[in-house]
Amino acid sequence: MTDTPSLCLPLLQPSQAQKHVTVNEALIRLDGLTQLRLQSRQLKRPPVGDVVDGACYAVADGAAGEWIDQDGMIAIGSNGGWLFVEPLVGWRAWILDEGLTATFVNGRWDAGWVAGSPSNASARIEVTESTYSVASGAEQQTNMTIPADSIVFACSARVIESLNGTAPSWRLGISGDSTRFGSGIGCVAGSYCTGLLSHPTAIYAETSVWLAPDGGTFSGGQLRLALHCYRISLPE
Q1: What is the rounded distance in angstroms from the CA atom of residue 236 to the CA atom of residue 233?
Q2: What one-character DSSP code corresponds to residue 65?
Q3: pTM (2 decimals)?
Q4: Which pLDDT value is given to residue 11?
Q5: Which among 103, 52, 110, 104 has a CA at the least distance from the CA of 81?
C-alpha cells in the first residue's frame, strides 16, 4: 500500500530517499481535508492568479486547464500546483462562496442534505438568497422563485437601500396572496420581516414572490430576500 485508504496520504516506503517530500505532501493533504472548507464547487479550471497554498476546490464536471480529467476531485493548492483527492460518501464541507454546508452523496456535493436512503431518495433543508432592486411602480414580481414540490417555512426580507416613493410601507407575498409573508413593513434601510408562516405550506408549482406598496408607489430601493424551505428527491 502506497497511500492511506481514506485521505490518500502518501506513505513512507522502505529505503525511500527524500522522505521529507512525502511527509510534507501528506501534511498538506491532511491540513486541507481536516475541517474541510471548499472555496467553490462551481469552477472547471483553477482560478486566475497565483495558487494559494491550502485552498481547496471541488472540481466541477468538464474540468480543464491544470484540472483536466479531475472532475469531481478535491483540488488542494500546494507549492504553486495542485494535489487531488477523491472525496468519499458522507464527507461534509463548508462551501465558502455560497455560505452553506454540503454533504458528498450520489457523486456530488449536496447542500442542505439531512437524510437519505439506499435508493438515493433524500431530504434537504434549503435557504436561497437574492438581492432585488425595486422598480418604479406598484406591485411587482421579484427575482425570488419558490421551487416546485417544496414546503415553505418562511420568506424573510430586509431593506438594504431605503425604498423611495410615496408608499408608507409594503407587503410581501405571492400572486393572489400579497400578504403571505408580511405586511406593513417599513421602507427605511434596515427594516425587515421574518416572513414566517403560521404553518409550513406545500408549493407544488414554481411560484414567484411578489412585493407591493401599501398605498402609493415605489421609485427605487433594494431588498435582500431569503427563502427558507424543505425539499425532497425521489428514490431511483
Answers
A1: 9
A2: G
A3: 0.77
A4: 79
A5: 52
DSSP conformation class of 12:
P
Task: Identify the DSSP state of 68.
Answer: T
pLDDT value for 2? 80
Q: Is the dihedral of CA 171, 213, 177, 226 positive or negative?
A: negative
The burial of 225, by beta-carbon neighbours within 10 Å (0-12 exposed, 13-18 middle, 19 or more buried), is given as buried
- Torsion on CA atoms 84, 107, 64, 25, rounded to nearest 10: 0
For residue 116, the SS3 value is strand
Q: 126-233 has which CATH code?
A: 2.60.120
Residues of the chain with pLDDT under 70: 1
User: Under 8 Å CB-to-CB from 213, ≥6 apart: which residues?
Assistant: 138, 139, 165, 166, 167, 169, 170
* CA atoms within 13 Å, Cβ hemisphere of 123: 5
Helical ranges in 15-124 per DSSP H = 19-33
User: Would you kindly state where each structural domain of the chain is located, as residue ranges?
Assistant: 1-111, 126-233
Tell me which residue of 169, 178, 168, 167 sits closest to 140, measured CA to CA: 178
Residue 140 in grid coordinates? 411587482
Q: What are residue 72's phi and psi, to 5 degrees?
A: 80, -10
CB-facing half-sphere around the CA of 102: CA atoms within 13 A = 24
Closest-CA residue to 163 (of 177, 142, 146, 145): 142
